[in-house]
Amino acid sequence: MEGLQDFLDQYTSERNHRPREDFVGLSSAQMYQMLYFEYESPDLVVLPEVIDIEPEAPILFLFSLLADAIGEKGLKATAKGNLPRNFCRDADLAYWSQETDMARPHDFPVRLERDCPALHAMRIVAELAGLVRKYRGRFILSRKCRRMLACGGMHAVYPKLLEAYVCKFNWAYRDGFPDMPMIQTAWLFVLYLLARFGDTERPNTFYEDAFMRAFPVALEEVPEAPWRDEEDSLRRCFTIRALERFAGFFGLASVVPKSESPLESEFRVSTLPLLSRSVQFNDAG
After folding, report:
1. Which of 12-26, 231-245, 269-283 shows the lowest mean pLDDT across its residues?
2. Where does residue 42 fall: left (phi above 0), alpha (psi -120 to 50 degrees), or beta otherwise?
3. Percent of the chain with pLDDT over 70
4. Which residues pair with 269 in a beta bridge?
């Protein structure tokens, strides 16, 4: 019996460590690490605490605007604890002025923080990262944030925003789709796909296909609805959450719509230099 158990253990181990085509060369064991031990698997991936190039990303652009507005005196919050209207107006205008590849998703005047979804998400993520907090009715930079800015600047701030976005922020909060948590759980696999294939510009459907091959179970997370096809819903959600509002928002990939329509569903995707500096994969596949 002991010999049989040893044989079964060896067989299971070999099978779990065998590269799988549907995981793009990763083994089952590596995929398990990638999904549940992202920051604890240095043999598979390293996520530096400080970036060795000047990071450029939409979320950092917005964070810089907020940090400058806070300054030494802080930025007064609204009665409901949100960013003030004038700051939101100015930040929204500045953000979409420099986001030349993306069409502004709305044409109504900015009255509330929530009228600027990207700014609203950044503010929440900055708080989750412990970089910004409210004190006596004002937004202030935490001591940790001031130390990081003084010592490493955005090189040190960026990894903290990234970690908070993937580990603490609920991606479903930014869109109207159902939860479908597998998309966020697989964030590192999405970056692995981009690192493997992003040197060549590809359509977003390429990454949708790869995700669905790896995680067909994700379809079970899509609630049934008579007016919606489950696969189409999953594909659209994946592109918005994983490509546009994660990889694109963090400057890890260029995600360019084929038209200026806010309803555009076709994108051209390619990696940006920040990806290889922020997420360093070892020879996994």
Report:
1. 12-26
2. alpha
3. 88
4. 202, 255
202-203 β-sheet, strand order:
202-203, 267-271, 253-257
pLDDT at 281: 95
Cα 103 off chain centre by: 20
> Cα torsion at 99, 75, 114, 94 (round to 10°)?
-20
- Residue 192: how many other CB atoms lie within 10 Å: 25
| Strands of 136-232, DSSP E | 138-141, 202-203
End-to-end Cα, the chain, rounded Å: 35
- The helix or strand, by DSSP H or E, that contains position 75, with its residue range, turns out to be strand 75-76
Measured CA distances, 140 to 74, 75, 79, 95, 165 (Å): 5, 7, 16, 21, 20
Check whether 278 has a pLDDT greater than 50.
yes
Enumerate residues 6+ apart whose C-beta is below 8 A from 161: 59, 60, 63, 122, 125, 126, 129, 131, 250
The residue that leads in pLDDT, 217 or 104, is 217
At residue 129, what are phi and psi to the nearest 5 degrees? -80, -5
Enumerate the β-bridge partners of residue 280. Answer: 46
pLDDT in tens, 192-244: 999 999 999 999 999 999 999 999 999 999 988 777 789 999 999 999 999 99
